[in-house]
């Protein structure tokens, strides 16, 4: 069952297109990672999904309802943690949590207490005196103590210490185990890799890649680490080989899935001493997409002019 | 070591000037233009000595003393004396306001938003920011003094000589300086920008009233505030310079105090203690309305006290007024016979119009808070939850409507109660309430305009303050300068029945209310259509 869906989402600020056709789809019980460089449109997409911004074109639906028109109805079942948590300086954290929970409707006192304890938050302090991480904890406690079906989290861990990050990850896992869906935007790729079932990569307002991590890896290929008796001077010219690097006296490079057979044949001529293969990490995937598409896109724009 | 406290002050000073390169000239030019226009208007309106002398007689009444300051040179009320006597205090209050806003902007606001932290991380002295702000304020106020002084002198009005004109400007500049220093001190004492403005504004407004009490009663009391000092300069009559020197001296002492306090406190902290807060929200704080109320609670309570004080000080003036006109028996008889109303009763609509405009300030602040919340990125938390935009804006509209009723009730009550306590002739308290409530529809129209602006053009919502200032100008100066009738009709306050000397015009009130409702509805429609965010 699809919980959240956008189709051809376009958002223009004046004439600047912050979103330029965004299509994502989150299924029930799924943790969906949303990654992309600064200013690529993650927060904008999320704000459109929450009916805070009005889409210029395209469709955004949550629980099958229109994100703009049925915002209030949708929000009864959504918990949101914004990227920049700005709170009221003269209210305490405890007051803000209660207010947030109340505004969503429904209360869960014991869950609130438990989360405050787990996140190690002092709810009696004024928000003015909270550090960035503590402000984030306020938003997280409010989000996870509400009984939502969909959690929309915009860089929720950017200010948390490693211990708190672990608590956060536990909270996400628990929510997932209860069959809830989560849309998680983040710059911490290890976190996305650990938590997410699916990932979408956005760049300049466009989704450039999406799917399960497995699918993405498949698209990208395998990382090989090879040590040979004789040097391989022509390696770079072999079809399907990219990103050659020296590592521990061996060569590490990325091989396109279709060319794997050819490449291994080529390498074996030089007498293999050691050979390791590993799937690319999300970081490697990410870098490749950014750098790769970065240059082609720039060339494309230049070509049009 | 001491030298490093002020490193890069020069560069920061230029930076402050650059950030305010539009704002500062705008303030200075406005003061020069308004002063010049009023001076010209006065000389045009009252051309003969007799006309001016007639005005001088009305200035002897304590109500006028309370409003504009003690009369001087009344026996030979020249155009210059008249202008300085009636305009200096009001203008000085606005100059004080300018200083408060500018200083807070460059001290506490910057600190709260984390900009000072960035500056401090650079090789910049610890006190450089405050010092550069104070230097800019010195420059602004000196410029203000010179520009206003010379532009008055340039009008070539006979009784407005060079020395007097420069003294007029200098008195304004000195007031600006001293309030800049007072604000700088509060920027160190309090914890945030809001309370800095609150305290400094409190001192300014309280100063106005304390001086009023001093001027009509015990002169020593008027010495408690700089506003009382500068009025003793007797511009264009005796041209005393010492009040300016005293005021500037006080400004310097307070500036040094502010610098000292800044040097001994931590960034982001203040000297007024922060109390530990509640761990859970009260039942009140569980709706957008409750939040709106909670966020503005302190401010609204302060305003409520202010309105009580304002009503009470005007009320006590009513008593003085009565005895003043009682002395001139003939005049009283004349007035009562021709008009059918006593002098005090005729004075009430004028007081009510001024008070209703002042009461509109907290009302408009209440509704505009919605925009501030948006600007500070806090509405995302609200509309991101199960709160419709109608409910959100509705909370603020309802609160501002309530505030309008409460504020006008408080003024009516305190004016009536203190008035009746000091007068021999008793006026029904209900009349005061009717006279005050007659202004409600006009205030609601102002709310409507604010809602409309927030809904459709949030960037322009500051326009409402301009419109309120304009309304104040036509209502307050309109009487003095005898503006034509239609100018008053450009403001909603110009349509209100002048109770008790006129009957309540329910038709017009209904039309105003209808307009307010339409504006509010239109505002809601726009608010439902637009993006939220900054
Ligand atoms: N209100 C606005 N007006 C104009 N431009 C905007 C507005 N909000 C966002 N933008 C622009 O839209 C683009 C996308 O911004 P967005 O905040 O969605 O990025 P992001 O992916 O969340 O970045 P980050 O990783 O830094 O949080 C940026 O170029 C930003 O400058
Ligand atoms: Mg973002």
Structure commentary:
The complex is a heterodimer of chains A (305) and B (534). By secondary structure, chain A is α/β, with parallel strands linked by helices. Chain A has 2 domains: 2-212, Rossmann fold; 222-279, ACT domain (Alpha-Beta Plaits, 2-Layer Sandwich), CATH 3.30.70. Helix content of chain A is 36%, strand content 29%. Chain A is built from 10 helices and 15 strands. Chain A has a 6-stranded mixed beta sheet with strand order 7-8-9-4-10-11, with helices on both faces. In chain A, a hairpin with a 2-residue loop joins strand 5 and strand 6. The model of chain A is unreliable at 293-305 (pLDDT under 50). Chain B contains 23 helices and no strands. In chain B, helix 5 (79-106) runs antiparallel to helix 10 (193-216) and helix 18 runs antiparallel to helix 23 (506-529). Chain B is globular. Chain B has 2 domains: 12-269, no CATH class; 300-534, no CATH class. Chain B starts with 8 loop residues before the first helix and ends in a 5-residue tail after the last helix. Chain B is mainly α. Residues 334-338 of chain B have low confidence and may be disordered. Helix content of chain B is 75%, strand content 0%. At the A-B interface, helix 2 and helix 3 of A face helix 14 and helix 17 of B. The site of adenosine-5'-triphosphate has 12 residues of chain A, from strand 2 and helix 1. Adenosine-5'-triphosphate (ATP) is lined by residues 13, 16, 18, 36, 38-44, 83 of chain A. Chain B: One of its GO terms (cellular component) is plasma membrane. Chain B: This is ABC transporter permease. Chain B: The chain crosses the membrane at residues 24-42, 83-103, 124-154, 166-189, 196-214, 240-261, 300-317, 347-368, 395-417, 437-457, 464-483, 506-527. Chain B: One of its GO terms (molecular function) is ABC-type transporter activity. Chain B: Keywords: Membrane, Transmembrane, Transmembrane helix.
